[in-house]
Amino acid sequence: MKLFDTHAHLDDARFDEDREAVIAQCIEEGVDLILNAGSNIATSKTSVQMAEKHDIIYASVGVHPHDAASMENSTIEELAVMAVNPKVKAIGEIGLDYYYDFSPREVQKQRFVEQIDLARQLKLPVIVHDRDSHGDVMDIFKKNNIKQVGGVLHSFSGSIEMAKECLKLGLYISISGPITFKNAVKTVEVVKEIPIDMLLIETDSPYLTPVPYRGKRNYPGYVRYVAEKIAEIKGISIEEVAQKTMENGKRFFNI
Ligand code: NI
Predict the structure, then answer these.
(1) What is the pTM of this model?
(2) Rounded to the nearest whole angstrom, what is the distance from the C-alpha of residue 6 to the centroid of ligand 1?
(3) Has residue 73 got a pLDDT over 90?
């Protein structure tokens, strides 16, 4: 069984002690592909470096809404330069976060739109972070013709209604560790109703560790627990989930 973890942060300091060993372990455990997502200029650079070093790793470059306020006008140009690398397959993670509000909302929105425009110019899809900001995210999608750009809602936390709207816009839905939590009622419904062809799986490691390892450090090998839960919800085999989400991920990221 081959798995594609479409969203990880192996550049995180929590992997400083054993990063290479973790990557070797992922390969051994059947994780064939990992998309390492950048979240600011520094982590975008590290993502690209990791992708250059390891065949199984691809990268995205972008500035997370948490860091939107630290963006300068030259930041977009810096991202554009990094994105020339053939292992960069998306702009992200970008979006809005109204849970933490680390950057003023108007700034978050402005920088989100600018990075969607960058993705359009570069013909790359976007990886979108949306926390407690569903309304404004959908509004920006519609006003900025997201269908033309392509995108994935990473670690999807919206309702089934929102998921269906996203489908109409041609967007993919990515499922992460919280699907294994007892209170995941809304997301279980999303997985049940959304066609398998539009689903991706991810860990968002080192965060969002699935059951039965909740509380420990997450890593791409645990993406199998997300696949297992989706298989259970959809009544299909984990092998089929692995195969479909691999195909979907390759199609989405043009790998
Ligand atoms: Ni992330």
Answers:
(1) 0.97
(2) 10
(3) no
